[in-house]
Amino acid sequence: MVLSDTDLDTLFRTARTPDRWSATPVSEDTLTALYGLLSLGPTSGNCQPGRFVFLQSPDSRERLRPALSAGNVDRVMTAPLTVIVAHDPLFFDKMNRLNDLPDVRSWFAADVALSEETALRNGTLAGAYLIMAARALGLDVLPMSGFDSFMVEDSFLAAQGWRANFLVSLGYADGVPEHPRAPRLGFDEACMVL
C-alpha cells in the first residue's frame, strides 16, 4: 500500500522545523502513542537499544539549559517538551526476551565494539522513528545536536547508564516558518544505483 499524498505531505513534503511553539501541551496519551509507534520500527535482531527521556516540566528543561548551545536555548525552553534520544549500551541484557535465537545476548556481551556500534546505530534509527511517529500523530518536530552530551548524561542518564545521542523538541508550531525550506541535494548528487 502506498500512502496518500496527504500522508506523504505530513511526513515529508510539507513538514517543517518550527520557528515558534504554541502553548498547547503534549498529552501523556500522545507520548504513550508515540512510543507505541516508534517501538515498532525495525532494529538489528530486534535489539531495541533506543531510550527516551521526555523533559516536560519547566524544572527538567531548566536542568537541560546549561548543556545547550546558545542557538538552541530558546528553541528548547519555549517548546512544550524536549526528548533526550539516547541508547542503552547494555541493551543486550534484554535480548533473550526480544529475540528467540539461542543465547543471542552473548553475541553482544562478548564483543564491546559490536555492542557499541549496534547500540548507537539502532538507537539512532529509533530516534528517526520518533520523528516520523511524532509527525504522524500531528506533532511538530525540531531535532538538534547542539548540546553537551556529557552534561546531559551526568544530569539525566547516569543512573541508567544510557548514552545521549541527540535532542528532539516536540509540540505544536505557532504559525508556519518564515523562511523558505533549505535546499536539498538532488538524486544524482546523493545517490548511486549500481
Automatic annotation (TrEMBL):
Q: Where is the signal peptide?
A: none
Q: Which UniProt keywords apply?
A: Oxidoreductase
| Top-level taxon of origin | Bacteria
The yes or no answer to whether the keyword Metal-binding is present is no
Please indicate if the UniProt record lists Oxidoreductase as a keyword.
yes
Q: Which InterPro entries match?
A: Nitroreductase, Nitroreductase-like, Nitroreductase_HadB/RutE
Q: Where is the Nitroreductase domain?
A: 22-172
Which stretches are annotated as coiled coil?
none
Reported EC number(s) for this entry are 1.1.1.298
Q: Which GO terms describe its molecular function?
A: 3-hydroxypropionate dehydrogenase (NADP+) activity
| Xref: PANTHER family | MALONIC SEMIALDEHYDE REDUCTASE RUTE-RELATED
Question: Which protein, by its recorded name, is this?
Answer: Malonic semialdehyde reductase
Q: Which organism is it from?
A: Ameyamaea chiangmaiensis
